[in-house]
Design a protein that fits this description.
The complex is a heterodimer of chains A (108) and B (125). In chain A, strands 1, 3, 4, 7, 8 and 9 form a six-stranded mixed sheet that branches. In chain A, strands 2-6-5 form a three-stranded antiparallel sheet, with no helix packed on it. Chain A has no helices and nine strands. By secondary structure, chain A is mostly beta strands. In chain A, strand 3 and strand 4 (44-47) form a beta hairpin. Helices cover 0% and strands 60% of the residues of chain B. Chain B contains no helices and eleven strands. In chain B, strands 2, 4, 5, 6, 9, 10 and 11 form a seven-stranded mixed sheet that branches. Chain B has a four-stranded antiparallel sheet with strand order 1-3-8-7, with no helix packed on it. Chain B is globular. Chains A and B meet through strand 8 of A and strand 5 and strand 10 of B.
Chain lengths: 108, 125
C-alpha cells in the first residue's frame, strides 16, 4: 500500500513560517489533503486538493505538491497553530484513504 | 451547517462486536455529494481509514483490507445515520473512533470536511 512519510516534529518561533512535508512515491501526481488536530479534538481539514483552503481557514495556510513531496506551509505561526498535522491521499491501487504519520508543530 | 453526532459504548469485551452510530444533521446519508466514513486513531496505528459507504443510484461500500473480514458499515435512511460494526474485537482495536463526511461538489472532492466528536473505545475484559 501507499506510504506517506512525515517528520515527527517541527518547531518554529512565533511569527516565522513553518513548513511540514509529506513524502510519497510520485505524490505530485496525486491530490493531497491536510488536517490539523489539536489535543482532545477531531481533525480539521485545512487544505484540500494540494492547495485549496476550506472556508474559514486563514490565508496563512497554504499547500504545494510536486515530485515526491507535498508541503503544508503556515506563515506567521502563533501559539494557536500548535497541533498535529496529517497529510492524506487516496491510494487508487488499494481503493483506500491513506494518512501520513503526523507532524507535531511546536511554536517556541 | 452539517453536524455528525456519534453514539455507542466506550467499553467492549474481547471477541465481542463493537457498534457505533453516527447521526447526520444538515445533510442526507443518501445524498450524492458525500461519502460517509469511519476512521480510528491509536498511538500505534495513527489515523487509520476503516471504510466508507455512499449512494450513487445504489449503495456502495469500501473497506480497509486490515479489517475487511470483520467490518460492516450500514446506512440507515429512515434515521439519517450510518453505523460501524466491527466483529471479534481484540485489545488492538482499542482506539478513538471517528465518523466523517467526504464532501464532493460537482463531482470534485473537497476533503473530509465534517467530523464527529470521536468515541474512545476500549477493548478489555
Amino acid at each position: 500500500s501507499y506510504v506517506l512519510t512525515q517528520p515527527p516534529s517541527v518547531s518554529m518561533a512565533p511569527g516565522k513560517t513553518a513548513r511540514i512535508t509529506c513524502g510519497g512515491n510520485n505524490i505530485g501526481s496525486q491530490s493531497v489533503h491536510w488536517y490539523q488536530q489539536k489535543p482532545g479534538q477531531a481533525p480539521v481539514l485545512v487544505i484540500f486538493y494540494d492547495s485549496d483552503r476550506p472556508s474559514g481557514i486563514p490565508e496563512r495556510f497554504s499547500g504545494s505538491n510536486s515530485g515526491n513531496t507535498a508541503t503544508l506551509t503556515i506563515s506567521r505561526v502563533g501559539a494557536g497553530d500548535e497541533a498535529d498535522y496529517y497529510c492524506q491521499v487516496w491510494d487508487s491501487s488499494s481503493d483506500h484513504w491513506v494518512f501520513g504519520g503526523g507532524t507535531k508543530l511546536t511554536v517556541l | 451547517q452539517v453536524q455528525l453526532q456519534q453514539s455507542g459504548p466506550g467499553l467492549v469485551k474481547p471477541s465481542q462486536t463493537l457498534s457505533l452510530t453516527c447521526a447526520i444533521s444538515g445533510d442526507s446519508v443518501s445524498g450524492k455529494s458525500a461519502t460517509w466514513i469511519w476512521i480510528r486513531q491509536s498511538p500505534s496505528r495513527g489515523l487509520e481509514w476503516l471504510g466508507r459507504t455512499y449512494y450513487r443510484s445504489k449503495w456502495y461500500y469500501d473497506y480497509a483490507v486490515s479489517v475487511k473480514s470483520r467490518i460492516i458499515i450500514n446506512p440507515d435512511t429512515s434515521k439519517n445515520q450510518f453505523s460501524l460494526q466491527l466483529d471479534s474485537v481484540t485489545p488492538e482495536d482499542t482506539a478513538v473512533y471517528y465518523c466523517a463526511r467526504g464532501h464532493y461538489v460537482s463531482g470534485a472532492y473537497k476533503g473530509m470536511d465534517v467530523w464527529g466528536q470521536g468515541t474512545t473505545v476500549t477493548v478489555s475484559s
